[in-house]
Amino acid sequence: MIYKSGDYKNSNYRCKCLVIGTGAGGSVAGALLSQHGHDVIMMEEGEFYTRESFVPDVGDSLSRLYRNHGISPFFGRPTVNFLEACCVGGGTVVNGALIWRPEPWILDRWAVSHGLTGYGYADLERHFITVEKDLHVETPKWDPDKNLNSLLIKQGAERLNWKTVPVPRAAINCTNLNRCMAGCPAGAKQSALETYLPRALKNGVRLFSGSRAIKIIHSQGVAREVIAEVREGCRKKRITIHFDELIVAGGSVQTPFLLRRSGISKLAGRGIQFNYSLKVAAKFDRAVHAEASTPFTLQVQEFLRDGLIINVSQFNTMYLALALTQFPDEVLNNVIEQRDRFALYIGFMASLSLARLVNCFNKSPFVWYAQKQADFERIKMALRRLATLLFESGAVELYLPVAVERPVCSLSELDELLNQIRPEGLDLVTVHVMSSCPMGTDPQRSVVDLDGRVRGMKNIVLCDASIIPSCFGESPQGTIMAFAHEVMTRQIKRVGC
Q1: Mind spelling out the 3-state secondary structure of the chain?
Q2: Backbone phi, then psi, for 118, in 5-degree steps?
Q3: Where are the domains of the chain?
Q4: What are phi and psi of 494, to 5 degrees?
Q5: pLDDT value for 182
Q6: Which CATH superfamily is domain 2-49+102-134+192-268+436-495 in?
Q7: What is the end-to-end Cα distance of the chain in Å, rounded?
Q8: Are the C-beta atoms of residues 482 and 127 closer than 8 Å to each other?
Q9: For 416-467, how does the pLDDT look when each residue is reduced to its tens digit (9 = 90+)?
């Protein structure tokens, strides 16, 4: 049963297991718990939207599907805008459906640095297989004639002798609408809305949409109830949900914010890691018709160990315009007129800089970070690598996420620009945030133990991006879901919840 605004007639509710969050981790938790016959309530601050409600207007989608209309800044120099989903299904609804298994060396590194025994590649492989089966993950075969934006950088990378790999995606019969960021109206993208949540609802889960967890009430290491705020038309009211077991999966900002507000963990939110998203619009010497292409088909992994990957991005006129907000109107209008010759590419670069929650007493979290000089230099290097690839692929103009009013047309122009820019001149975004409540064996560094249980609490488990030990460049959805499967398997065995 799905509760929406107006459906909350009572002030008190009761369940065996309460799951806060319905994204990559929470949806897995709700499905697995209900599969074992337990009474489950799932809470989601955002509203419930069906595929029929997804519209092509990106501005409207940002307003409805994202927190704060798509504006959730990490304050610093420069400010980094976090595009944080706020809807039933969470980030799985608005991402590009990329499902990667982390490289074995990444998992080995976590075993050494955080003591994550039991989370090696061999341990998690069965969960990766399950996730990929549940989400119908496959590497799509794309027609080069219809995906010239991918073919060109594949050829450019081959000339540079750079490694490229096809992208595994959670999608069935993708119709190339290029609207992943705004929700897939065709239902091709296998988000939680199409997979784990229907399974949970079929098993009897009560889904509370438009329900924001305000505080966890606890004593003597046991959490007993959550105070939540729900919408009743134009007004809000508070309800109380009583439970035996609490699973928190609100994401890497909201999860530590709730723990800190509830007086549960002072360490939560101290070391937030993220990927910088560096989007570049490239103009080619021919029409590439990127708007009709298959999104996210190819990835350049030559610099994966440096924390940098390069993707072909989704494309339409609105996304192109959003990538050029720092340019004058006359430049933007000229680009739009020639949009058939343009394509969008994105570099994801793992940050060395850490963000942290500063004030946890307001209604919304305040996140601050200090960019390390090393990150600034790495961003410039990443932009040069992107430019090298794109010029080698036939681009004639590049529009960079930098506060300039003209494109660059050569590597020499780019080098001149990079020598002049300052950190505040960068236009930075992040869509991948993790590590705010890391898992580990050291109580001084980790918020949760190897079972996902919050230290000092007997019945609170985390299973979202916050427990991932460190940022690793790739889209983390597959890793989050594999960790969630392992954590919930241990939870079910431990207490039978």
Answers
A1: CEECCCCCCCCEEECCEEEECCCHHHHHHHHHHHHCCCCEEEECCCECCCHHHCCCCHHHHHHHHEHHHHCCEEECCCCEEECCECECCCHHHHCCCECCCCCHHHHHHHHHHHCCCCCCHHHHHHHHHHHHHHCCEECCCCCCCCCHHHHHHHHHHHHHCCCEEECCEEECCCCCCCCHHHCCCCCCECCCCCCHHHHHHHCCCEEECCEEEEEEEEECCEEEEEEEEEEECCEEEEEEEECCEEEECCCCCHHHHHHHHCCCCCCCCCCEEEEEEEEEEEEECCCCCHHHCCCCCEEECCCHHHCEEEEECCCCHHHHHHCCCCCCHHHHHHHHHCHHHEEEEEEEEECCCCEEEEECCCCCCEEEECCCHHHHHHHHHHHHHHHHHHHHCCEEEEECCECCCCCECCHHHHHHHHHHCCHHHECEEECCEECCCCECCCCCCCCECCCCEECCCCCEEECCHHHCCCCCCCCCHHHHHHHHHHHHHHHHHHHCC
A2: 90, 0
A3: 2-49+102-134+192-268+436-495, 138-181+273-430
A4: -70, -50
A5: 87
A6: FAD/NAD(P)-binding domain (3.50.50.60)
A7: 20
A8: yes
A9: 999 999 999 999 999 999 999 999 999 999 999 999 999 999 999 999 999 9
The residue type at 337: E
435 within 8 A of 275, measured Cβ to Cβ: no
Token duo for residue 276: 């910088």
> Structure tokens of 403?
């506060």
Give the CA distances from residue 8 to residues 11, 41, 233, in Å, rounded to whole numbers and listed in that order.
Answer: 8, 13, 11
Residue 88 has phi, psi (to 5 degrees) of: -60, 125
Strand order across the 17-20 sheet: 2-3, 206-208, 40-43, 17-20, 245-248, 460-462
> Which residues, including other chains, have CB under 8 Å from residue 21's CB and lie 6 or more apart?
42, 43, 44, 90, 248, 249, 250, 251, 254, 255, 464
Please give the model's pTM, rounded to 2 decimal places: 0.96
Q: How far apart (Å, rounded) are the C-alpha atoms in residues 74 and 79?
A: 6
Collect all residues with Cβ–Cβ distance below 8 Å to 411 and sequence separation of at least 6.
Answer: 384, 387, 388, 391
Give me the pLDDT at residue 236, please.
87
Of 132, 55, 144, the C-alpha closest to 98 is: 132
Distance separating alpha carbons of residues 465 and 437, to the nearest angstrom: 9
Rg of the chain on CA atoms, in Å? 22
Task: Show the tokens assigned to 135.
Answer: 């989400």
Burial, 266: exposed, middle or buried (Cβ in 10 Å; 0-12, 13-18, 19+)?
A: exposed
Give the integer Cα–Cα distance in Å for 426 and 80.
9
The model's pLDDT over 289-340, given as tens digits with 9 standing for 90+, comes to 999 998 889 999 999 999 999 999 999 888 899 888 888 888 889 999 999 9
In 3D, which of 496, 492, 480, 489 has the Cα closest to residue 21? 480
- Other Cβ atoms less than 10 A from the Cβ of 483: the count is 27
